[in-house]
Specification:
This protein has a single domain, classed as Metallo-dependent phosphatases (Purple Acid Phosphatase, chain A, domain 2). Helix 1 runs parallel beside helix 3 and helix 2 runs parallel beside helix 4. It contains eight helices and eleven strands. It is globular. The strands form two sheets. Strands 4-3-2-1-10-11 form a six-stranded mixed beta sheet, with helices on one face. A five-stranded mixed beta sheet has the order 5-6-7-9-8, with no helix packed on it. It binds manganese (II) ion (MN). Manganese (II) ion binds next to loops.
């Protein structure tokens, strides 16, 4: 069991614990997740996170589920998405999770994999990447976190509306990973054999490119797909 690793992304948990996606996630944490010793969540676990002070209370049932997972001696790594980029150390402490940086290399057997949320691969999505530069800026974040929860909620709604408004105008191609984005990523990570990411909500095992296989995680709607490393190989499976 110690060699088994699970990868998920983009669950976009809502505040409502009784929503079906919430129940599916809680069920996953109590069953499938326990089959692996390590769980990687590659961004956008939460549909919104306006600061640990608010999030830890609002999402309490999910926080408990994550804490229970690490409390059982398993490892949990959480990456930041474009909806929950304000996850900070209080979240890490409450859940026992280790927060990931933008790009993380891990070893899978004798091979290397690079993990990321995936938004930075969508290099044609110029407006979004500009917005990302802003909201990932440390000063902008520090200022935002000083505002009241109500003000922060308003900012979050604006960001969400901006990205969703753009989504309906943009073509599906603009919202996908580009060759440029993938080439740039590979130039930063020589010798990786796997790219694992979410964000585009297009679950797939792509044909190898330059000897690298790209695994895209889904958003659990409707199919609950996760990526599983069984100690020997990676496989996209459904829950
Ligand atoms: Mn995303």
């Amino acid at each position: 069991m110690s060699q088994h690793i699970l990868f998920i992304a983009d669950v976009h948990l809502p505040l409502q614990v009784d929503a079906s996606i919430s129940q599916v996630f809680l069920n996953f944490m109590q069953t499938k997740a326990l089959e692996a010793q390590t769980l990687y969540i590659l961004g956008d676990l939460f549909d919104g996170w306006i600061g640990d002070d608010v999030g830890l209370v609002a999402y309490a049932p999910f926080i408990s589920a994550l804490a229970k997972y690490t409390g059982s001696g398993r490892s949990l790594y959480v990456g930041l998405g474009n909806r929950d980029f304000l996850l900070k150390s209080d979240f890490a402490q409450a859940t026992g999770a280790i927060l990931l940086g933008d790009e993380t290399e891990i070893e899978l057997g004798n091979e290397k994999a690079v993990l990321l949320h995936g938004d930075t691969l969508c290099t044609d999505d110029v407006d979004y990447l500009k917005m990302r530069t802003l909201f990932t800026n440390a000063d902008w974040q520090a200022q935002a976190l000083q505002k009241s929860p109500t003000e922060r909620m308003a900012i979050a709604e604006q960001l969400k509306a901006a990205s969703e408004g753009q989504k309906s105008i943009k073509s599906a191609v603009v919202m996908d990973a580009t060759q440029t984005g993938i080439d740039e990523l590979l130039s930063r990570h020589a010798n990786v054999k796997h790219i694992i990411h979410g964000h585009t909500h297009r679950p797939m095992q792509h044909a190898p490119y330059r000897g690298v296989t790209r695994w895209v995680l889904g958003d659990w709607r409707p199919e609950t797909e996760y990526l599983y490393w069984n100690g020997q190989q990676l496989k996209l499976e459904s829950f």
